[in-house]
Amino acid sequence: MSDPWVALEPGADPAERVRVLRRAHETFTTAGTVPRPVRSVVADSWRRSARAGVGPDGSARVELSDGDLGAYRAEHPLARVMSLFRELMGTFAADGEHLLAVCDAHGRLLWVEGHPVTRRRADRMNFVPGARWAESAVGTNAPGTAVAVDRPVQVFAAEHFIRQVQPWTCAAAPVHDPRTGQVLGAVDITGGDGLAHPHSLGFVQAVARAAESQLALLTPPPPAAEMPGLTVLGRDEAVLRLGGHRIRLGRRHSELLVLLARHPEGLTGDELLCAVYEDESVTPVTLRAELARLRRLLGPGLFASRPYRLTAPVESDLAVVERRLEAGAVTAAVAAYTGPLLPGSQAPAVVRLRRRLADGLRTALIARRDPDLLADWAHAPWSEDDLAVWRALASLRPTPAVHARLAGLESELALPESRVPR
Length: 422
Prior knowledge:
Blueprint: H1 14-31, H2 40-51, E1 61-62, H3 66-75, H4 82-95, E2 99-104, E3 109-114, H5 116-123, E4 131-132, H6 135-138, H7 142-149, E5 153-156, E6 169-176, E7 183-191, H8 198-218, E8 229-231, E9 239-242, E10 245-248, H9 251-262, H10 269-276, H11 284-298, E11 303-304, E12 309-310, E13 315-316, H12 317-326, H13 330-336, H14 348-368, H15 371-378, H16 387-396, H17 400-413
Parallel strand pairs: 8-13
Antiparallel strand pairs: 1-4, 2-3, 2-7, 5-6, 6-7, 8-9, 9-10, 11-12
């Protein structure tokens, strides 16, 4: 298939495709193997569903109802663009006997609207507001999988992991916070086989982008003077954006600001001393001198003591990557990762943060099994010797160049196969 994200190629016979998919689904649920005709995005989703303990005869569970659902929806950012969703998709859903659905970043359905007969059919499988349709709860489905992989996706008929959902076809696209890039949820169109057309995938993607543009207009970013920013990835000395100016910090001040930005509640002198200095003989006087210089640099309006803390939120590129990774937006997280956190720092707390972030990205990339993302990571200067990533890449893209690089790494490191974590 030319586009793995589209369920059916133009001219394909939907009935024959359904028969093939049902056989493949049966093979997977009984033998654990995925026959070749199944799209890679679906095969990966089936494997994640099985690892999460989802059974093919399961069903969705309603987590929010009545007042709880109403209060949650009212406070959710996507409530501000529901009128846009209805304007762009409402008539299409009603006329085509489809459903418009919107979920949050955890796969919980917030709104399900559309043709009344179709809604009654969907009610029988708990495709209703308040139900959790995360991939980890009900397996492969468009809204749940879209937030899991952070990209638009189509799920056709027996590509759904749960048999009860296999009569349906759906297309969904994630919606992001235009300021932070964090996944807010997904917009979905659900109905019959006709939605397997490529146009439905492009349609929901366009609606999601329109929603992001609307959110950007509704919540414009505050002036730079009101939102200090910190760049700490891929550089030994941080850059602070403050009051419209760019301030290049020394290494020690970079370390201190990273830690203070992560702890808005503040840190004591003893906590900072242990976090920043390797040498246990360094005295509190040395730390207090550094903090005094940092206070003069930042000004009293941003820095306070007892405990040491920042008096306003400071956004950082580190926090952006962490949020995207936590939300499962691996592609977006990798795009924002410009290198290790303060790579030259030996401050114990910074070293731990640096390793945890790199390990989290590496683990997510290997689990995602996207050869393009793995190749980008493997060829980056900070990970060109990452054996686990090169092995994962070789399993997906076994080219001579990849195998040659992998063989060279294994020879250089001289590690037995059994000792290298996968």
